[in-house]
Write a structure and sequence with these properties.
alpha+beta, two-stranded antiparallel sheet, 7 helices, 8 strands, about 25% strand, globular
């Protein structure tokens, strides 16, 4: 499993191409050959970049859902809406399709943020707003998610 580290700022050109920062490109090196899947995030107005190996793991999970249950079928449809296969070109750029730029509101200033095994791609202003909005609740969230006793299968 890939585990990415860091938050990086970059710029998108008029065609929606991002120059991947060198330090991040190095972290992505093992996935560059296989390509990536780019999709809308579920909870935030950003995009998620999955290395193909991570996307395949996610598809294995989705493939186990019973498609004859409407809820499952609806989830799969919405989860995969707008999904695109993308590659980093020889110049180190990633092209974001126009429909996904529209969803995420990405303009010129962009943030690439690690999210364990995927990368989130944000419009810089929206990213900063999301971080500011979550700041006051983060201590409580950290305690709830990470502060469980070992008996509760927590990570402490």
């Amino acid at each position: 499993m890939n585990s990415f580290i860091g938050t990086y700022e970059c710029k998108a050109d008029a065609k929606g191409r991002l120059m991947i920062p060198a330090v991040l490109k190095k972290q992505l090196s093992s996935a560059l050959q296989d390509g990536f899947v780019l999709k809308r995030a579920v909870f935030q107005p950003c995009l998620e970049l999955y290395p193909m190996s991570e996307w395949n793991k996610m598809m294995e999970k989705l493939n186990k859902l019973n498609r004859f249950k409407k809820k499952n079928n609806d989830f799969i449809r919405r989860f995969t809406a707008g999904v695109k296969i993308v590659e980093v070109d020889s110049a180190g750029r990633l092209l974001i399709p126009k429909d996904l730029i529209g969803f995420s509101g990405i303009s010129k200033e962009v943030v690439l943020a690690s999210a364990v095994n995927i990368l989130e791609i944000w419009d810089k202003n929206k990213y900063e707003q999301a971080i500011d909005d979550a700041a006051s609740d983060f201590a409580d969230l950290a305690e709830e998610v990470m502060g469980q006793d070992e008996d509760d299968n927590g990570l402490s």
